Amino acid sequence: MSLKHIVILLISTGMVMGCGSITKNTESRLAAPSQHRSYRHVVPQDILKEDTDTIKDRLYSHYQEWRGVRYRLGGASRSGIDCSAFVKIIYETEFGLALPRTALSQAELGDEIDQEELEAGDLVFFKTGRRSWHVGIYLEKRKFLHVSSKKGVTLSRLDNVYWKSRYWKSVRI
User: Residue 65: enclosing H or E segment and its boundaries?
Assistant: First the structure.
């Protein structure tokens, strides 16, 4: 196999794995859910009083700032970012909450809710592979903000064939 084929194989594997993929060894080192209890119901009171339209406006503002920033596994900057880093950054800047770094760890936080209960700011999770997960932030009308491996920071729909078939759960922090 030529070097060119090996490079193409490695790049393709990284794209398929998704932003939230972790290895078995990493998975065993993840903090137990009980260690994340400090995240449960710690949203500052002023944020709780904000109406949904204000939260949506703030999230759309982040979308405009980050729109098109490319996907990079493990990335956490405007030169390249993955889904869980993007969610972590938005939650820290908008809500003052320090979330864990991986999608799987973020999925352990808050309260699980039904899709019909989604409000702006809730997290939506997808199982994109045997050991890979993806996270986005719900906006409105079945749209969510996330980092796509092909489009970078973008908006997608929960009822899109790809995302609908991979939907795992929704969480309100």
Answer: helix 52-66
